[in-house]
Amino acid sequence: MLALESPYIEKIVLSKSARVGYAIFINTSVAWLVSNDPGNIMIVQNTQGDAEKFATKEIGKVFNHCSSVMSKLYGKNTSTEKSFFGGDLSVVWATSASSFRMVTIKYLFMDEISGYPDNVDKEGDSIDLAITRTESEGQRKIVLGSTPKEAGTCKITREFLRTDQRYLYVPCPHCDFKQRLKLENFRYSPKNYKDAHFVCIHCSGKIEEHHKFNMVEAGEWRATREFECCGVHQTPERWDETGSALCCKCGEPGDTNERGKIDAGFHIWSAYNDNPNTSLPSIAAEYDKAKKDPRKMQTFMNTKVGVEYSDASRAHKLNNFEELYKRREYYSPMESLPEQVRCVLATIDTQKNRFDYHFWAVGERGEMWAIHYGKIHGDPEDVSTQQNLIRELETEFTLSDGRTIGVFAAAMDCNGHAWKAMLEFCAPYQGWIFAIRGEGNAKTKFKPEFTLTYKVHPEARCEYRSLNVHQLKNRAAERLNNEMPGKNFIHFPVNDVFDLVYFQMLTAEELKGSGSNVKWDKKPDQKRNEPWDLLVYVLWLYDFLRPEIQDASPQEPLGLIDPNAHKITDDIIETDYGDYYETSDYGDY
Prior knowledge:
26% of the residues lie in helices and 25% in strands.
């Protein structure tokens, strides 16, 4: 109720697991408003059936059995509409646009918004239609609550991310350090669910079921979103009694919207619930079952953890960058390449002030070894910068038998900055450097082909190919998740180049959304992703040249140093180009 009473808070968004008392919150809030601060109230349910059920079994009981509310009744009194001194209550449904016509609302409560239609009766989003009815009220309150649904299209998650994002911080029973209860810190044994517990992130002590009641009683809500106030960008460090973040300078709530009000978001899940059916052992048992069945995992994450979920996201979820870092091996590729190597490929990413490049050794059945990752600083359009890049691409590598090879082929991203200039740079090296550009629009990203188009720029006189980056990124995630050396495995050496920062950039993106809305995007607070892009390019280049690479052998590798080392014979590039070449066959991957 503190959030409802606060003059600063205008909007409340509750992203929650099932059965945490949201209906009780609506009922008690309505009872308090009718008794203490009356005004027009609207409660929005998903369907007409839901609205009638809620009106009868939930809010109806308040008006029929709460004496302070009953004494305020005056006038209309039906199951879905009630009048009282100072206002009216209406229970409506989101599937009808007429629910939001000819009414002015001061207090708006919306339930299970994740199930609302995107375009009700072709009049727009039902959430926006409902909120529009509150615009003439200066002291309005807007409350939205729901259990999340599918990632990428989940409405409650979308609304929660627009708020100050509050979580309940509870004190550890051992060291008193306040923290969130997170699923990632949950531990249990499949053989003994009764031992389920959380691990304190400060003292590593066990937080068990019998600790929960006192912890939650002593908990406090804390807004977590960074904000700017008094000209200072701030991470929340102080909070008022409602959980609003306070500015470090003025001491007032700092994360406010364009009207100077607060959009407060609250997330709560069943681990905080003091209920025998949501005890930690019960959660452990359900989580263990869900791990074995993706359909159950969707239900578990939505209804128990209270977060959006998508099977599509899980299918290509990248391993943690620290795990990839720990997987590094002791080999020195700049001194001697592994004996299985058949060729060396290079990839180049064009930035405004530099080239990023990567060398990769390729062996049998797509096995790869990272060789080197580096940068060439300077304007990519300057001849000197371009010459420095060529010198790097002319690096010679030593095979295990002492022979030397050079870069057999390179793929260079020419998209974005200085597009035409980069094509002009690539033109003299066609057949050695392949000009590429990424494409990820909704119409083409689900095609199985890695190469979408092949064109020749009429002015630069350079051929270039558009790549299906969505499918290539799926393939890159599969490669990085592969933990068994051999086919399609990627090796990384132990050296200063391949450090933790490199692996953070290598895993900088994640798959978001589902269905036609699924897409790869950078993770929050992740700005750099060049190694990830360079891996995507080399997977395309390997796939494009796979027939030639498969015909090679450690005894006869591609790119042996000779006068023609930088030219690929004409028969490698087909004049009659088509998208359905052998290397697009997923079955052979």
